[in-house]
Write the structure tokens for this entry.
Amino acid sequence: MDDNRGMNVHKGAQMLELTEKGDERGHLVIIEGEEDIPFKIARIFYIYGSDSEVIRGNHANRKSQFVLINVAGSSKVKVKDGKGNETIYALNRPHTGIYLPKMIWKEMYEFSPDSVLLCISDQHYDAEEYIRDYDEFLKIVNG
Ligand code: TYD
């Protein structure tokens, strides 16, 4: 977010614990834009049926922020800031997500057979804002 309204401003990738309401009937996880995640929701997509050897993502986004949640199964997300910092996050709970700011390199991999990776973004799809070449990403973030 560009201002301080809503939840705390997030500058870097970080795990998010989502609101979960559980009772004897089961679980319910709530994701409200600008409340449970730090942006208005413009787009939702989900990824499933990826083999454990597949690496998805492999891009950075000039504009899009994301929250990723394995609503079923598990996967890993490697993020790189292009300045030497690299972190691997494990997604394996329907109520735990990862927030990814714009201009961060991401790779999703080690999908479990039952993985359903829910991806939420603040931007509509625009292929032009995807940076799919790592060297180009490095040039941009390092000036
Ligand atoms: P891609 O970006 O390669 O997926 P991932 O980064 O998760 O591995 O997208 C796969 C295809 O789907 C590609 O042709 C672009 C298209 N696509 C859309 O049309 N809209 C979207 O919101 C997304 C994420 C992808």
